[in-house]
Design goal:
This is TOG domain-containing protein. This protein has about 350 residues and is an all-alpha fold. The protein has 22 helices and no strands.
Length: about 350
């Protein structure tokens, strides 16, 4: 405990030192020989510290959040991108830090970088930060909508960066799942046509993300409404037919890897035409050996990678304890193994007694 407390004190001390550097004007740092690469390395270190939710929340209390958000406007693209990465880590599955960033007007520079930064990496990192900031954050989602965020997402789908497209598609699908009324908004903005184009992308992740978005639009909502993709665009049937043909020509190994795409294509066909796709007749929807239930292709697919366990800590508690215990005490026999050993010893004693009596 003393070692852990000492380490915590050291981290806070180091974060205060980093905060002091972030608060120092850029010209002063340059005069002292601090380079942009030094700043990037410092932000890398800060990102490691704020992986801890407690440290992430402490950053605001020691005065580090405001200058970090200021780095989103730095003249160096790499620093703007790295600052967005740190913000992403701070707000992931962390309602308190989400609120702090919102109160510090952190969404505004992120939206600006996402929509109009000349560097596509900066735009992509800003989008990642926005996605984490507004997830399960109703005020954040509303602010994103009011700031014309959907128009910026539409522009992102037209980017040549596959990674940027994937992030945009994932956020779109999440927002539509959270706000069914937004389906009409994206329909009017022309999203279905763009998604149809991306559903034939050579990148499998982009294809699947586009199909998920189309399926979200086509699904009937609680009020009975749905976007009539099949009526508005015959290209959908052609697209799905091409995907079915492409799936039919896949090798067994590729078919296994394309399991989610197979179910997405079938679900989308069924949602639009009220009948199963030909994948079922061809035996390609559920392959031999796929006894497990098919993936839930209509559920939320956007989940930030870092600190994801925090979204459901109860289900992770036992596994975390099992991993952490050996670090302190060293590995020991599991309770199951001990139970089996006791049972074996009892059986051995009983056999010995029987043999002795015989």
């Amino acid at each position: 405990m003393e070692a852990m407390q000492s380490q915590t004190v050291d981290v806070i001390k180091r974060m205060k030192e980093i905060t002091l550097v972030m608060q120092t004007p850029e010209q002063v740092l340059e005069s002292q020989g601090v380079t942009p690469q030094d700043i990037e390395d410092m932000l890398d270190e800060l990102q490691e510290h704020v992986e801890s939710i407690d440290m992430a929340n402490d950053l605001h209390s020691i005065g580090g959040l405001a200058p970090l958000l200021g780095y989103l406007k730095n003249s160096h693209a790499n620093i703007r991108a790295k600052a967005a990465e740190v913000v992403t880590t701070i707000v992931q599955n962390n309602p308190q830090s989400q609120q702090l960033v919102m109160e510090a007007n952190g969404l505004e520079p992120l939206l600006s970088n996402f929509a109009s930064d000349p560097d596509v990496t900066v735009r992509t990192k800003a989008l990642g930060a926005i996605s984490s900031l507004i997830r399960h954050n109703k005020p954040g989602i509303e602010a994103f909508r009011l700031a014309n965020g959907y128009a910026a997402l539409r522009d992102a789908l037209g980017s040549e960066s596959v990674k940027f497209q994937r992030k945009a598609l994932n956020l779109i699908q999440y927002l539509l799942n959270e706000n069914a009324s937004d389906c009409s908004v994206v329909d009017k903005l022309g999203f279905p046509r763009i998604m149809l184009h991306l559903a034939s992308s050579e990148d499998p992740d982009v294809r699947e993300a586009a199909l998920r978005g189309l399926l979200e639009l086509a699904r009937e909502k609680a009020d009975g409404s749905a976007i009539k993709l099949a009526e508005d665009n015959e290209k959908l049937k052609q697209l799905l037919g091409e995907r079915i043909k492409g799936i039919s020509l896949m090798s067994p190994e590729d078919l296994g890897a394309a399991r989610e795409e197979r179910h997405l294509v079938d679900s989308l066909w069924n949602a639009c035409y009220n009948e199963p796709s030909s994948l079922r007749d061809k035996g390609l929807l559920v392959l031999p050996g796929e006894d497990a239930p098919p993936p839930d292709v209509a559920s939320k697919h956007f989940e930030p990678p870092l600190r994801a366990w925090a979204a459901n800590p109860a289900s992770k508690k036992s596994s975390v304890e099992q991993k952490e215990t050996p670090l302190l005490l060293g590995p020991g026999p599991s309770s199951e193994a001990t139970s089996n050993q006791d049972t074996s010893m009892s059986e051995a004693d009983a056999n010995g007694q029987t043999n002795a009596s015989q």
